[in-house]
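F.,

This is the one I mentioned.
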């Protein structure tokens, strides 16, 4: 007597289909839908730690921790310790709950570490090495863009959506799921015809309810930002002209700084070249039709500003570069949010669609 046959919604994985997947998926590396959020939190905490550390050291007269014994416990050591703790946490716990904690602890640790980069680039261990702010900036932006590139290098595969939903259920299997976590897991499920999706849905729905969960500062901050962005961008016809104007103004300001300041000359040339490139890319965006093409060109212009213009501007004048950094990140956030709205986004992978009905 033959056993039960799988129904149409319980399809078995086709080995050929698996073999044709991306190599990272085949070796077991699906992306985390919240990966960009965690990387952004890591970078923000890193930069905030650097700024706070330098402010506290300046306010206290740069004390030597270790007294008069000849020892100095540099804060790079505390940074390494915190990064080690973050790695141990990441390797010790399964599921998504620990990742926001890792991004915060690791961000503080990396901030303390990278703040002392000047000491390791100079023969006299110069903490005040002039290019240090620019170097810290380049490292932070490079990590942020690396995280974005890993998340956006290709469209989301249904197996990644399924993995994200199952990963969300990991914490629930151990301690129950809050309604918010259950809803998020269900929204991340792929279509029912994907092999494993019906079983994953049954598992998620069978997990007992439990509203007790570890508060996530990263998640709470991200929800507030996303909610504000949705309200701001709802029917915002003004966004395109405003973004275009600000991108052009930022490029012209960079060119102005390059003309006004020329010491060191290489930094002025870098700012000028970056500003001109920004202006050209923004101009192409202005000439493009409304919608996705224009905002794609604005994003390219902002990337050039963050990767080329700003590092050199930090070498010329730090306060102007700091203002430019804040403006650039805000504009890039608005452009990314608008592109997400215009393209429809990958709602299931990101878990940001309406609750499953």
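My design for it:
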């Amino acid at each position: 007597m033959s056993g039960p046959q799988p129904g149409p919604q319980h399809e078995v994985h086709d080995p050929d289909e698996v073999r044709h997947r991306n190599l990272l998926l085949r070796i077991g590396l699906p992306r985390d839908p919240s990966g960009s959020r965690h990387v952004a939190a890591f970078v923000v905490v890193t930069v905030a730690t650097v700024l706070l550390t330098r402010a506290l050291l300046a306010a206290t007269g740069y004390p030597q921790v270790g007294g008069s014994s000849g020892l100095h416990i540099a804060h790079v050591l505390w940074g390494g310790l915190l990064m080690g703790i973050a790695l141990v946490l990441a390797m010790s716990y399964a599921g998504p709950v620990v990742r926001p904690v890792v991004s915060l602890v690791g961000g503080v640790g990396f901030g303390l570490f990278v703040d002392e980069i000047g000491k390791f680039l100079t023969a006299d261990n110069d903490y005040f090495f002039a290019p240090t702010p620019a170097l810290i900036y380049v490292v932070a932006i490079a990590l942020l863009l690396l995280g974005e590139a890993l998340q956006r290098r290709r469209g989301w595969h249904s197996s990644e959506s399924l993995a994200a939903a199952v990963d969300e259920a990991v914490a629930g299997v151990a301690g129950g799921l809050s309604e918010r976590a259950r809803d998020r897991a269900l929204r991340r499920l792929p279509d029912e015809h994907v092999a494993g999706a019906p079983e994953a849905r049954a598992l998620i729905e069978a997990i007992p309810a439990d509203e007790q969960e570890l508060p996530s500062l990263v998640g709470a901050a991200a929800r507030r930002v996303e909610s504000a962005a949705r309200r701001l961008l709802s029917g915002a016809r003004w966004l395109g002209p405003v973004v275009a104007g600000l991108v052009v103004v930022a490029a012209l300001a960079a060119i102005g700084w390059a003309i006004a300041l020329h010491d060191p000359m290489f930094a002025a040339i870098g700012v000028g070249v970056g500003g001109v490139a920004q202006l050209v890319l923004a101009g192409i965006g202005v000439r493009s039709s409304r919608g996705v093409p224009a905002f794609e060109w604005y994003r390219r212009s902002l990337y050039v500003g963050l990767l080329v213009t700003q590092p050199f501007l930090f070498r010329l004048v730090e306060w102007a570069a700091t203002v430019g950094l804040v403006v650039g990140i805000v504009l890039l956030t608005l452009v990314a949010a608008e592109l997400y709205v215009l393209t429809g986004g990958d709602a299931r992978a990101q878990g940001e669609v309406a609750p499953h009905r």
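Residues 1-12, 346-357 have pLDDT under 50 and may be disordered.

Talk soon.
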